[in-house]
Amino acid sequence: MGIRTEYFVAATDEVAATALHAPGGPSEPDLRTDQPRFDSVAVPAVDPFVMLGGLAGVLSGRPYAEVTAHPRHGALVGSGGDEGPWIVTVAQTLVDELASAGPTRLAQAAREWSGTTTPAVPPQALVTALLSLGALAVRAADERHGMYCWTSLTD
């Protein structure tokens, strides 16, 4: 069993929680408009707790325990119960760091981050993930919205 993660942008925690009503996740098209419900990126297996905590530590230079102690690091805003899906927050400090880092810094961070993941994730896979997350963070900043992660279990 694995996890599926989709990071997305929403104006508030309450709006983000409405992604629970989309069985396919925040990128599922709205039936009325045929457009995705939220601006989102799928980032396979980058969980919003441990892996994102490691990334926050790499980008900020702060210890893992400090970044994961942030009250908005992985705070639950919506739950589909024991079987999920779940929606959690991404700390605004990490969103700001992602948005301001730029592609060169994100690629460097991916190489550093790769050495801290368990199991090890190839640096190139993390570069792709970080560039997507960075672009989403820029859009979140432009809209003055928060970033969230929709997570579900997979077979």
Describe this structure in words.
With 155 residues, this protein is α+β, with helices and mostly antiparallel strands. It has one domain (2-22, 29-154): 3-Layer(aba) Sandwich (Hypothetical protein yfbM fold), CATH 3.40.1760. Helix content is 42%, strand content 19%. The chain has a 5-stranded antiparallel sheet with strand order 2-1-5-4-3. α2 crosses α4 (92-114) and α4 (92-114) packs antiparallel against α5 (123-143). The model has no long low-confidence stretch (mean pLDDT 92).
- Percentage beta strand: 15-25%
The secondary-structure class comes to: alpha+beta
Count of DSSP-assigned helices:
5
Gyration radius (Cα, Å) is: 15 Å
Can you tell me the CATH architecture? 3-Layer(aba) Sandwich
Strand/helix succession: EHEHHEEHHE
Overall morphology: globular
- Give the proportion of residues in helices: 40-55%
Counting structural domains, the number is 1
Q: CATH first level: which class?
A: Alpha Beta
- The end-to-end distance, rounded to whole angstroms, is 5 Å
Mean pLDDT: 92
Q: What is the CATH topology?
A: Hypothetical protein yfbM fold
Query: pLDDT under 50 segments (min length 5)?
Result: none
Q: Count the strands?
A: 5
Strand order of the largest sheet: 2-1-5-4-3
Task: Give the secondary structure arrangement, pairings included.
Elements: E1 2-10, H1 13-17, E2 40-42, H2 50-60, H3 64-68, E3 76-79, E4 86-90, H4 92-114, H5 123-143, E5 146-154
Antiparallel strand pairs: 1-2, 1-5, 3-4, 4-5
Helix pairs in contact: 2-4, 4-5
